[in-house]
């Protein structure tokens, strides 16, 4: 199960690296700022989790070295276990030492320190197994590094793609619940453990379960790719489905999905689609060139396959159809999924107009000019409903008006003929019905100003007005009271 002699060999062959790790760890321990110490140690551990699997398993990709290593009187199973013990212990011992020192200086209870250390050890084991598995999926060192990098950045790329797509096609929502993507990134979950330790925060049970799953799956795949590995694979083309074919396809769809976010609401129907493709043709050509180049790297030769343009065209059409579906279904119905008529939500409506800028819509200026003894060149109207950071009961009259205004703003967002230069302002909503704060923002095409001003008689409603000459508050009779007069 484990070879002491082989472990001694690994220790001797990496003695200079181990010496550097020991020196850096000692320097970190004696840093005055213990928070900085543990952060620096965690960054060192993160780097080693990527470097050590490559350094320890490099020989499986070397034709001469793999014959020599696999011929020593140690079974492959023992070699694999010894390699992983060496990698994990090299990283875990300094990391856990820094966490223990931090816990002592901060007066954290022994039980908490032990529990966090166990979570950190689990994360180190999971990430080390995951990266080692990815490296062994390939057949040469370069491909192994590329595969590790591609899968490491995949969750972040997916997060950026989904967030951009949803912000484009879902009206109003400012924050999307995409935290589940974190479960696809072992390194992210590992840093969460350190972050919570520094904050003395909660323990993420779901993270631990996810890390256990990553560890088990990675260990099984790693075992099969090492113990049953054919030495003939060394330094050959990497052809496994989970490597280049899958990676190239996933990244292609993600980039095409990002491109489709430009397929906005001004492109309507078949003519609009054709016009969009013409507008973005250069980007599509550049992306196809990158896709083909990746294929050349994969094959290690300038060979062209007729399947490439077919796959690219099909992927482009699928993402455009997906974007079109998002437009026609109001963001797959997500725009209407907010909590309706929630009396504890805070609302703010901000209206502004400037005669010297913007479109031809001056209805807000014209409306308030009747209440003033002059026509302002610009005007800002700020309406706040609720009490900041406090949950209060908003009247039904306010809720009815705000819901009507909100629905009109969503309709405006999905209209094909909208012109934001004629908009009159924004509407902001903060809802804390659940544990997490949910925020929304909408562009307003128009507002019933009489109904808006009538809300001043409702509880928890404040209205203020600013013009080029003065600042005003609105009293219970709807009259503008000067609060500040500009010189």
- Let me know the average pLDDT: 89
Taking Cα atoms only, what radius of gyration do you get, to the nearest Å? 30 Å
Could you estimate the helical fraction of the residues in percent? 55-70%
Number of domains: 3
- Uncertain runs: none
End-to-end C-alpha gap: 86 Å
Strand order of the largest sheet: 4-3-1-2-5-6-7
Strand content: 5-15%
What's the number of extended β-strand segments? 7
What does the overall shape look like? globular
Give the ordered list of helices and strands: HHHHHHHHHHHHEHEHEEHEEE
Report the major sheet.
7 strands, antiparallel
Number of helices: 15
Structural class determined from secondary elements: alpha+beta
Descriptive account of the structure:
The protein contains 15 helices and 7 strands. With 487 residues, it is of the alpha+beta class. It has 3 domains: 4-140 and 178-236, no CATH class; 249-334; 338-485, no CATH class. A hairpin with a 6-residue loop joins strand 3 (425-431) and strand 4 (438-444). Helix 6 packs antiparallel against helix 8 (186-199) and helix 7 (141-169) runs parallel beside helix 10 (244-260). The chain is globular.
Key structural traits:
487 residues; globular; alpha+beta
């Amino acid at each position: 199960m484990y070879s002491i002699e082989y472990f001694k060999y690994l220790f001797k062959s990496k003695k200079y690296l181990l010496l550097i790790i020991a020196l850096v760890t000692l320097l970190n321990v004696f840093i005055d700022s213990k928070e900085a110490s543990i952060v620096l140690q965690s960054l060192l551990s993160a780097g080693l989790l990527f470097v050590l699997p490559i350094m320890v398993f490099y020989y499986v990709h070397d034709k001469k070295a793999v014959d020599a290593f696999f011929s020593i009187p140690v079974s492959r199973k023992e070699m694999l276990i010894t390699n992983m013990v060496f990698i994990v212990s090299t990283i875990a011992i300094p990391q856990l030492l820094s966490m223990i020192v931090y816990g002592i200086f901060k007066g954290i209870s022994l039980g908490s320190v032990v529990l966090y250390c166990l979570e950190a050890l689990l994360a180190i084991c999971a990430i080390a197994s995951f990266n080692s598995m990815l490296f062994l999926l390939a057949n040469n060192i370069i491909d192994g590094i590329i595969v590790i990098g591609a899968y490491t950045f995949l969750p972040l790329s997916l997060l950026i793609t989904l967030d951009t797509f949803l912000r484009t096609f879902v009206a109003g929502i400012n924050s999307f619940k995409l935290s589940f993507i974190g479960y696809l990134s072992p390194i992210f979950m590992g840093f969460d453990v350190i972050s919570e330790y520094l904050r003395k925060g909660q323990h993420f049970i779901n993270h631990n379960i996810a890390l256990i799953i990553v560890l088990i799956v990675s260990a099984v795949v790693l075992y099969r790719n090492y113990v049953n590995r054919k030495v003939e694979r060394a330094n050959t083309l990497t052809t496994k489905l989970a490597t280049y074919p899958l990676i190239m396809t996933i990244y292609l769809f993600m980039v095409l999905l990002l491109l489709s976010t430009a397929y906005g609401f001004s492109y309507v129907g078949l003519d609009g689609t054709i016009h969009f493709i013409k507008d973005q043709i250069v980007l599509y050509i550049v992306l196809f060139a990158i896709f083909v180049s990746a294929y050349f790297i994969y094959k290690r030769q300038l060979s062209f396959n007729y399947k490439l343009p077919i796959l690219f065209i099909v992927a482009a059409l699928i993402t455009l159809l997906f974007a079109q579906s998002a437009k026609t279904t109001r963001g797959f119905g997500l725009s209407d999924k907010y909590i309706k008529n929630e009396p504890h939500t805070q609302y703010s409506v901000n209206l502004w107009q400037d005669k010297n800028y913007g479109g031809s819509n001056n209805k807000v200026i014209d409306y308030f000019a009747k209440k003033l003894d002059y026509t302002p060149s610009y005007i800002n109207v700020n309406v706040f409903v609720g009490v900041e950071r406090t949950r209060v009961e908003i009247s039904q009259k306010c809720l009815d008006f705000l819901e009507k205004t909100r629905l009109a703003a969503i309709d405006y967002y999905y209209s094909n003929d909208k012109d934001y230069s004629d908009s009159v302002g924004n509407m902001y909503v903060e809802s804390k019905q659940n544990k997490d704060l949910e925020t929304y923002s909408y562009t307003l095409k128009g507002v019933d100003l009489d109904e808006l001003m009538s809300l001043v008689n409702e509880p928890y409603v404040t209205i203020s007005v600013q013009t080029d000459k003065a600042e005003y508050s609105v009293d219970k009779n709807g009259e503008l009271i000067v609060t500040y007069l500009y010189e």
